[in-house]
Amino acid sequence: MPQTRPAIDQATPTTAPPTPPTALSLEERLAFINAAMSVRLDEAKVAYEVNTAHIDTEPVDLDDVVTGPLDTGPAPLPDLYPTPAAAVLQRAHHRLLTGGWCKDVLVDEDGARCMLGAIRIEARGNSGVEATAAAVLLDAIRRQFGDHVDSVPGFNDSWANGRNPIRMLDQAAHLADARGL
User: Fold this and answer.
1) Residue 95: DSSP 8-state
2) Cβ contacts of residue 169 below 8 Å, gap of 6+?
3) Across the strands, what pairs with 113?
4) Average pLDDT over the chain, rounded to an integer
5) Which residues, other chains included, contact 22 with Cβ-Cβ below 8 Å and sequence gap of 6+?
6) pLDDT band, residue 17 (cuts 50/70/90)
């Protein structure tokens, strides 16, 4: 007689197969790498301390090691313009950038200057060059903002910050150079 084997139930299994792992997002991978690097750095720090514990050292005073020039101030401005009025306007622009801008006075208590105050100090007593530079500046302002601007001090004092007045000094330097003034 042939031997019969018990039937094996071919029904679907009652538990679902495990799902494949999903790929980690960039943020998750970076977080894992950050954690792994922190552990490695901590281990290296401990190893360094253990390996160097026997070395007798004296603390170093950084004032003895680090030397250099003390407050030397801003670098000197190279003369980009060969003509006197353009050079004065360029230096006035640089003075406002480095020394500060103010309004309502030629020079404030901190040493900041208005546009005309910067031109006056950079003209170094040459009233002809000062007048030419101020006239070119007023012309540059009127080209940009219209003929309703009546004076350089009026334009300067109409701003809350020095961004536009400083920019206009730079444009006036270009204009004076183009005119050969």
Assistant:
1) H
2) 89, 92, 93, 96, 115, 118, 137
3) 101, 107
4) 83
5) none
6) confident
Residue 164 lies in a domain: yes
Mean pLDDT of 151-175: 89
3-state secondary structure of 36: helix
Q: Which residue would you say has higher pLDDT here, 136 or 13?
A: 136
Angstrom CA distances, 6 to 3, 9, 44, stand at 10, 9, 64
What's the CA gap between 59 and 34, in Å, rounded?
32
Give the SS3 label for residue 65.
helix
Condensed to tens digits (0 to 9), the pLDDT of residues 42-85 reads 999 999 888 888 888 777 777 766 666 666 666 666 667 888 88
| Domain around 170 | 84-179
Beta carbons of 147 and 108 less than 8 angstroms apart: no
| pLDDT at residue 114 greater than cutoff 60 | yes
Q: Is residue 94 part of a domain?
A: yes
In a domain, 118, yes or no: yes
Three-state DSSP at 4 gives: coil
Number of structural domains (the chain) is: 1
Q: Is the pTM above the cut of 0.70?
A: no
- Alpha-carbon distance of 151 to 179, in angstroms, equals 21
For the chain, helix (H) and strand (E) counts, in that order, are 7, 0
Q: Considering the domain boundaries, does residue 117 fall inside one?
A: yes
